[in-house]
Amino acid sequence: LYSVPVGFAWGGILGLLSYSLFPIMNQQITTMMYFLPIRLKGRSFLYIIILFRLLPGLLLAFSSPVYLLFYLPDLGGILGAYIVYRAQLGR
After folding, report:
1. Angle formed by the axes of helices 10-21 and 66-89, to 10°?
2. How many whole angstroms separate alpha carbon 91 and alpha carbon 85?
3. Confidence class of residue 5 from pLDDT cuts 50, 70 and 90?
4. Is the CA virtual torsion 78, 83, 88, 89 positive or negative?
5. Which residues does 53 contact at the CB level (< 8 Å), separation at least 6?
6. Reported pTM
């Protein structure tokens, strides 16, 4: 029996967040990280989100490949948001 460290609903939440970041990839945005305002570009913020989901999955995959399955829906949500954004941009 494996414990699930991350809920699968995070894929949709991260997809919505990344979909809202795609139009402002090159603009400066201010985010609140633990009550500290941090100014960075939308592209950097998206890279940070992807790395925070990818690195734990890869590190835990060395112990058991099953753990990688818990982190793939999050990256799938971001990829799905990118596909929808590119499809709407092409219209």
Report:
1. 30
2. 10
3. low
4. positive
5. 14, 71, 74, 75, 78
6. 0.78
Q: Which tokens sit at 60?
A: 């835990």
DSSP string, 41-65: EHHHHHHHHHHHHHHHHHHHHTT-T
In this predicted structure, the answer to whether residue 6 has a pLDDT above a threshold of 70 is no
Please list the residues that pair with 39 across neighbouring strands.
30
Rounded Cα gap, residues 6 and 64, in angstroms: 16
**Which residues are CB-contacts of 60 (< 8 A; sequence separation ≥ 6)?**
5, 67, 68, 71
Residue 27 pLDDT exceeds 90: yes
